[in-house]
Amino acid sequence: MNLASHIDHTILKADCRLQDIEQVCKEAALHGFAAVCVPPFYVKPAADLLEGSKVKVATVIGFPMGYAPTPAKVEEIKRAIDDGADELEAVVNFCAVKNSNWNFVANDIDSMATATHLKGKTIKIILETSLLTEEETRRLCKMAQESHAEFIKICTGFNGQEATVEAVQLIKSIVGNKVKIITFGGIQTKVDAEHFINAGAHRVGISAGVALK
């Protein structure tokens, strides 16, 4: 297995510095990772550093809580794309989910996906499966699929929970091959990463990708 091509090399620490971003981009280009995922503040320098490489630049939208107003998320997407982002990782509005305001949730997801796709870029809808019931997960997966999202991401990694193989298997059973799956967290070794991929994940988000090589 070419594990490197499945890795999203991720740095989203609140206090990360430009030199940290430079290191992550250097490692991603050297090892042939699929993407780097950086805070919106660092999208432009990351895009500049990776210009000419095959590594995609990803960033987060409405992160990590997801409850920013939809227009604010859309503007975040537009700015990130202008700065050079290839992939947008957008968090769903969990408050709306927990209030069963499904029309709002559907519009939120579709608006973010539309803003991304109008610019020819890729959107990853971030769930937080540890906060969701199975029924909520199923509804969100269907909405992501209907919005033509390219990826569903299991979790943010910022609510004390990590992705599980069981969550990957559940989402895979819902979307099949129509939407790709990304994990985050829960990976310490190459074997861990391979378990997630064998369960149906297309990519694994990890901050220690080099250690798995």
Keywords:
213 residues; alpha/beta; TIM Barrel; 8 strands
Describe the structure.
The protein is an alpha/beta fold. 44% of the residues lie in helices and 17% in strands. The protein is built from nine helices and eight strands. It has an eight-stranded parallel barrel, surrounded by six helices. Strand 7 (180-184), helix 8 and strand 8 form a beta-alpha-beta unit. Helix 3 packs parallel to helix 5 (102-117).
List the helices and strands and how they pair.
Layout: E1 7-10, H1 18-31, E2 35-38, H2 43-49, E3 56-61, H3 70-83, E4 87-91, H4 94-98, H5 102-117, E5 122-126, H6 134-146, E6 151-153, H7 165-175, E7 180-184, H8 190-199, E8 203-206, H9 209-212
Parallel strand pairs: 1-2, 1-8, 2-3, 3-4, 4-5, 5-6, 6-7, 7-8
Number of domains: 1
CATH-defined superfamily: Aldolase class I
> Span between N and C termini?
11 Å
Q: Could you tell me the strand content as a percent range?
A: 15-25%
- What is the makeup of the main sheet? 8 strands, parallel, barrel
CATH class bucket = Alpha Beta
Rg estimate, integer Å: 16 Å
- The side-by-side strand order for the widest beta sheet comes to 1-2-3-4-5-6-7-8
Give the strand tally: 8
Mean pLDDT: 94
Uncertain stretches of 5 or more adjacent residues: none
Along the chain, the helix and strand elements come as EHEHEHEHHEHEHEHEH
What is the general shape?
globular
- Into which percent range does the helicity of residues fall? 40-55%
Number of helices: 9
Q: What structural category do the secondary elements indicate?
A: alpha/beta
CATH-level-2 architecture: Alpha-Beta Barrel
Query: What is the name of the CATH topology?
Result: TIM Barrel
